[in-house]
Design goal:
Number of helices: 9
Order of helices and strands: HEHEHHHHHHH
Largest sheet: 2 strands, antiparallel
CATH class of the largest domain: Mainly Alpha
Shape: globular
Oligomer: single chain
Helix content: over 70%
Number of strands: 2
CATH architecture of the largest domain: Up-down Bundle
Structural class: mainly alpha
Strand content: under 5%
Length: 217
């Protein structure tokens, strides 16, 4: 199971690094026929007016690959429910409800921090670099989670995953909306939320299979 999860994370990382960047606003000469507001923009920008970037519709495969980060975020949210059945005795947490609570909520606290940091990164670096950073964080978190010898180590790993979750919860919808064809934007805009829900469902299904075939109380 760990190898499957690692391959999925690696696929997310590779796909995020292959995504094309959305265009940034650029300066271009103002056309001859302008409105009063355009003339004001012209005078304030020293002869050039800021023109909104054109939309660049992308194939559905790009939009789907960008949404894979949301799938991983949903998986990290739900998988801990079944994993705790084995982690509690393995890490000696039978009488430590506070640490168990921290393991569960570490993703949430990380997501709060990630959502606070993301707007600045989105503005200065762009959508695709933000997705690349979140993919790397997911990959690091997966490796640390698999290695975790102590509860504190696992809390740190899930906190990093939470930061990535907070980032993709903002970056993915923005990227999808900016790169979707106008006529299909409403449909494609549902991809991130669909992926989150699918990730949670997949994590529950994997937990159930582990309990069914590996045993557990």
């Amino acid at each position: 199971m760990k190898s499957i999860i690692f391959l999925l994370l690696l696929l997310t990382l590779v796909s995020s690094f292959s995504l094309p960047q959305t265009p940034k606003s650029h300066l271009s000469p103002l056309p001859s026929s302008t409105s009063l507001s355009s003339l004001n923009a012209l005078s304030l920008s020293g002869g050039n007016a800021i023109v909104p970037p054109p939309k660049i519709p992308l194939p559905p495969s790009y939009i789907l690959s960008s949404s894979l980060s949301s799938l991983i975020g949903g998986y990290d949210t739900g998988v801990i429910a079944g994993a705790l059945l084995y982690l509690t005795p393995a890490l000696g947490l039978n009488n430590q409800p506070f640490k168990i609570g921290l393991i569960v909520t570490a993703c949430t606290f990380g997501a709060i921090l990630g959502s606070l940091l993301t707007p600045k990164i989105l503005t200065t670096k762009g959508r695709v670099p933000t997705l690349k950073i979140s993919s790397v964080l997911f990959l690091i978190s997966a490796g640390l989670s698999g290695y975790s010898p102590t509860a504190e180590f696992l809390i740190l790993a899930r906190f990093l995953a939470g930061i990535a979750m907070g980032a993709v919860s903002t970056a993915v919808p923005l990227y999808v909306s900016e790169t979707s064809p106008t006529e299909d934007r409403g449909r494609y805009a549902t991809f991130p939320q669909f992926m989150i829900s699918s990730g949670i469902l997949i994590s529950y299904a994997i937990d159930l299979m582990i309990l069914r075939f590996c045993g557990g109380e």
